[in-house]
Amino acid sequence: MGKKKLSLKPVNRGFATTSVQSKKGKQAVSTKASEQGGDIAAPHNDTPTQGTEPVKPEGEDGQLPSHTAAAQPKASEDDWDSEQAVDDAIYQGLVDRLQEKADKEVMRLVKSLDQEKRFAASFPRLQINDNIRDQAIQYAQDDICKEGCEPKPWNPAASGTDSDKVLLRTYVTFQVLSRLGFSDRRIEQCILQGLDDGQGWSEGEEWMWLNLSEDECRGVGEFASANVSAPVMDAPLIDITPDAPSLSLEKTAVDNKHLVVATPAPNNTESTAAPEAGSLFQSLEADESDSSSESDDELNLNKTNESWVTLMLEFEDVKTAAGAVKGKGKKSKSQVVMETPEMVKIKNKINRLEKEYMFNKKDADALLKAMRSKRVMERLEAKLKNIGTPPEANSAAPTETPPVTSVLDSFVSDDEGEDGGLFGNMLDEPPERPVEAGLAVNSTINVRSMPVPKQFSFVGNTAKAILRTAISKSSRQAVISYARLSPNPRVARSGLEIRWSSQKRRVWRMDDIACESVEEAENYVSTLALHDLVASGDLLPVNWRSLPPAYRDLWDELEQMHTETELAAKREIWKKIKALVDKKTSGKTSAAGTTASKRTFTSTSVVDTPSRPANPIYADNLRAMYEKRIATPAYQKMRQVRDSLPIAPFRQKILDMLDHTQVLVFSGETGCGKSTQLPAYILEDQLSKGEPCKIFVTEPRRISAISLAQRVSVELGESPGAMGNASSLVGYSIRLEAKMSSSTRLTFVTNGIALRMLEGGTGSSFDEVTHIVVDEVHERSIESDFLLIVLKHLLEVRKDLKVILMSATVDVEKISEFFGGCPAMKVPGRTFPVQVQYLEDAVEIAGWHIDESSPYAVWDRNRKSGAKKLEWTEEAAETAEDAEEDEEGPADPTKLPSSKYSSRTVETVNLLDSRKIPYDLIVRLLERICFEDSTLESFSTATLVFLPGLAEIRKLHEELQSHPHFGTRDFVIYPLHSSISSEGQSSVFDIPPQGVRKIVISTNIAETGVTIPDITCVIDSGKQREMRYDEKRQLSRLVETYISRSNAKQRRGRAGRVQEGLAFHLFTKARHDNQLAEHPIPEMLRLSLQDLALRIKILKVKMGDTVEEVLLRALDPPSATNIQRAVLALVEVKALTSDEEITPMGRLLSKLPMDVHLGKFLLVAALFRCLDPALTIAATLNSKSPFITPFGFESQATAAKKTFSVGNSDFYTIVNVFDAWRRAHDNTAFVRTFCKRNYVSHQNLQQIEELRQQLLAYLIDSSFVEVSREQKQEIARVRYSRGFKTRFVTVPTHLNENAANERIISAALASGLYPKILTLDVAGGLRTISNQQPVSIHPSSINFRLPKSEFGANNLIYYTLMQSKKLYAWETGPVDDRALVLLCGDLDTKLSAASMQIDRRLRFQVDPKSTLALKHLRDQLASSMAIRFRGRPLSDRQSQWFELALKCLAMGLYEDPQTVVVS
């Protein structure tokens, strides 16, 4: 008895008689197998093959027959000591750990790619210029070569990645790339040379498309045969009859990977070419591709037949060598061999010979039979020479007599009857049975009993019936045919063929196993086929447990064999993957060492944090200078004036409180002297004690900082103009201007400057500051509130820091509680009484009256009158924004009592449009006060008029200058606005000569912080312009609103500083009492927090991990929604990362006090050299539209607007009309005519130019835009020049070279405004990409009612989206898809699917090469822009990439790059 197999349980086995094998034959087979080895068959090729030892009869112990035993390797105790067994165990461990996870990932990715490919077919197609594409790919290849083409070793240890993850990633990469059609050789090359540590299949695919030709990547042209395998078909069965009529079901397509040989496979086989398709009853058709000719040159009767026999014998030898090899066991095994190209070539020659005239089939067969017999005898003689050596397998043969004997069976040759018609040569004299190529001489056929009980046949639970049913469900065109392969009457062997189509045929044969009857044989081979098709996925799973017992056992055996073969194949795959990974990581030790050394160098080269500077040392000369100064007459004189102020008696109390507390809240009423005296008290106290001090006083406006610094400097005895010198103790610092020196100890700064000073935190110049005074804290600006957050945090770090918070109307309790219950102090003021009059009083006193035709009348009343107007004025005209606000309707005016006021006054007040500034009423009031009413003339010395903005100031200033009385030398008229130069602002404090009266026209800049001492009368429009976040438009914009009651109190208080005053509020008393808010809404609650979020991230003082955490500490915390909206907007424009880390562009945007979307637009436009039109667009979007629509002239205004239309874009139209207006200014007499003729607002256009100048100044201040010193001076001169004549700033040429290129301007807009994109849906409508809301174009847009087909683009960009009757997009314009791909969002590409997506919102279909080019252009453009945002110059290569990207944006699809100039 032989050794018992360790891997199999003892089961019943059949018996077989065997013939003796020679040692020589065994060795030859082993050698051949080793030469052919290396490939592992696919799982569905696993079919029973002959075993390595005799098989016991079925039923004795249930052992698997010899054909299944071959799948189990011979196991012995010595095997585990072998190297192969150890390797198998290692790789089996990988299979157990990683195979399931890896296969799931591969299937997921493949399915995802297939689905993406189907979806991409419906995406809009995106193309780029071929020249640009090729140039980008060439640049990318050149860059890779510069970096080095050597293999890039992996270092998993350095990256913290374990080996299993590396193997898993490599396996997935290899399998996915293989599924995409790339050859194994290219995949290995890609992994070894193209992938960095941590990269996977996506990067591998990009490497393929970058370095291989498009034909090779697609598998076309000369690479078609390498990547696309021809259909594989099994050889047809011979001499069989159909089992049943063909099943008529629908034909199903089957993937080529399932068309594999299903016949018994040897241990090592070699792939062969696919045989040609042939039917069951016909020989294979000849392949006529071979051009060789075998025709005879001379007439020889026997030569043709002899050549035929020679070729037949050669064919049998080739066929035997190709497939009929022996196993490692004692018995040989055979299989149906697929035809190799060599076999096909020989068969073609045979076919041509058979068509020769001299060929005789009968004579040739006789000759062939003789030659075969001779060859068989020679082989037997050779084997008999080795008969003395007993075969190894005899030791394992059973001793008991088998109940069923094995029969030496002959095999029907597939080659016989090649051209014998339908029945071949069956009618010829049967030749002696030759030795089959598929069977060795000593082959053994094992007999297995496979009974089919009658009850199973009756109910149809046989393998044959189940197979037929399963096939009929899958395809009605399939044909099932059986054939008996053995003529021996004692046993039966069958073959099975299933033909789905001419391109798909499967064959199963019982070559080394037989059954006791034809029925058993057919069910046996049906079980083989059924299992094979189910395992391969060609058929759905069947209920195999309903089969007879013998066939259930067979199924279990097949399943076990299939599992083992699969495991072996998987082990080989992981072995290959492991070898690749080992090769890739071969240099990891040195790489790790290099990385470690670099890390060490980096850590040791870090500059130590500078130590905190020591407290400033008090200079003796400063004390001496102070003592000398207080003795001067100028100081003593001013000291007397100072001591008369209401705050003077509280001087010592204030100083004592500061000695005992760190924070003090100081509330001083108007006129008490708090803004000038309190900082001076602190300075004088510290200097007199010889203690070091540095005091900062923060003011909300620069005019306040300047005027207060000048006043305090004079009060401390300094000579005029000395401020900022070495001898001065007082200075100021505002944006673009500062007067400070090393001796300065008291500095007045704006809130913005204070915040920038505090950005450095501890360890900076901030450590020298001893006192911080926050003035006008009641205004609750966003900067002042944030300053409070920062100071509260710094007080915990700087215990020596003193903070004083002061204002006239501050909420003492609230501020005190915010700072932990700090002490508070209140000081009374000194003012004179002020007579307060409201709108109805002003109308009554002035005797002013309007009717329904007046431009100041409510517009609804004008509209309802139906009067056709022949003329229009700018005051009565509306912009689109005004019309939108009209839809909400103005508030109903309060009805006035007719008993107190005249009927004309009541009618006028009720008819007056509260949204408009009544300039005529203001002029009429001034006339009444100054000339007509003697009781009011005493208040006419100095009048302060409050208006909302510069445009209104300019309008009233022009009217007064043109007035016959106010335009004379008897009056001086001063405008006061933040854009006016410091010298111009300071002039309002001058006292005019005797007999000359002063009129100051100001914004709310004169409300607090600035005291014009001689003001006796105030006319308050009740309006102010402030930034608010518009919930309807979802953006921050400058809006005109009513003031609060506390603001009104401050304004009228300006008139009672020197005498009794008079104040007119141009709103009704009912509105004051019932509609005005008590206090203004803090800016933090009504503004976008984008700028503040950036400031938080710039601060070196860490106050929290997130923006939300910091802002929730505010005095009045904003809502979480507003915070999240701001952070999201910053992430969208890439000012912050997703982790809320600030980017280089974010640092620049923090210096631009504007909406971050427009800020980014300006930055990108500066880089793209199209700054001038960008400034116009940004300024217009921040203010009002230049187009107006007068009542009664709607159609004319619309037609005029259309004449300026450019490129179906509202943005280009704005630029066009502004440029036309600017050109019209060459003739100042014509500009008004131009505006009236074209229905544009001269006032709005002036405001746009002023904003352009301001935005350009921001860019220059941030140091992002480089201009010469002369250009800086010119911009400052134009901005702060006196007078109201419009002056234009010229943008430097180097920043404006692409101003005429609409594509580049549109690209810059897309970069800044993204994701404000509208996409055309299938139905032709517009939807937002953010939430897919349907959107309509607003009637004010030039694209209103424009057919969607005329846009010339798939997407539109917009700035304002507002909900009214519909969700309207206001300013719109087309945007090129290439601009979106290169500049917007996060890009996701799938090369194999030809898919490109931006944030999963915008989708395009792009060919792989173009995708690769666009991706490299995008990456290089982003890198170049980031470098420029950091303020660094580009290298030559980066400049080439940048210019190529600009050309891609600027060029059409078929333009020549040489003809497009973008620089």
3D architecture notes:
The structure is a single chain. With 1463 residues, the chain is an alpha/beta fold. Among the domains are: 620-827, P-loop containing nucleotide triphosphate hydrolases (Rossmann fold), CATH 3.40.50.300; 834-1084, P-loop containing nucleotide triphosphate hydrolases (Rossmann fold), CATH 3.40.50; 1085-1129, no CATH class; 1155-1450, no CATH class. Helices cover 43% and strands 10% of the residues. The protein contains 51 helices and 32 strands. The strands form seven sheets. Strands 10-9-11-8-12-13-7-14 form an eight-stranded mixed beta sheet, with helices on both faces. α3 packs across α17.
Keywords:
Rossmann fold
Write the layout of secondary structure elements.
Layout (H helix, E strand, L loop, with lengths): L22 H14 L29 H4 L13 H38 L9 H18 L8 H4 L3 H17 L4 H10 L7 H11 L2 H5 L5 H4 L13 E2 L60 H21 L17 H14 L6 H24 L61 E2 L6 H6 L3 H12 L4 E6 L9 E8 L2 E6 L3 E2 L3 H19 L12 H36 L3 H17 L15 H10 L3 H11 L7 H10 L2 E6 L5 H16 L5 E5 L2 H14 L14 E5 L2 E3 L6 E5 H8 L12 E5 L6 H16 L4 E6 L4 H7 L5 E4 L6 E4 L1 H8 L12 H7 L14 H9 L14 H9 L7 H14 L9 E5 L3 H12 L9 E6 L5 H5 L10 E6 L14 E4 L2 E8 L4 E8 L2 H9 L7 E5 L3 H6 L8 H4 L3 H9 L8 H5 L8 H13 L11 H6 L6 H12 L3 H11 L12 H10 L6 H15 L3 H11 L3 H20 L7 H11 L22 H12 L3 E4 L5 E3 L5 E4 L17 E4 L2 E3 L3 E3 L2 E4 L1 H7 L3 E4 L4 E4 ...
Parallel strand pairs: 2-6, 7-13, 7-14, 8-11, 8-12, 9-11, 12-13, 15-22, 16-18, 16-19, 17-18, 19-22, 25-28
Antiparallel strand pairs: 1-3, 3-4, 4-5, 9-10, 20-21, 23-24, 23-26, 24-25, 26-29, 27-28, 30-31, 31-32
Helix pairs in contact: 3-6, 3-17, 4-50, 4-51, 6-7, 6-8, 6-17, 11-12, 11-13, 15-16, 16-17, 22-23, 24-25, 27-30, 27-31, 37-39, 41-42, 41-48, 42-44, 42-46, 46-47, 48-49, 49-50, 50-51
EC number: 3.6.4.13
GO molecular function: ATP binding; hydrolase activity; RNA binding; RNA helicase activity
Protein name: RNA helicase
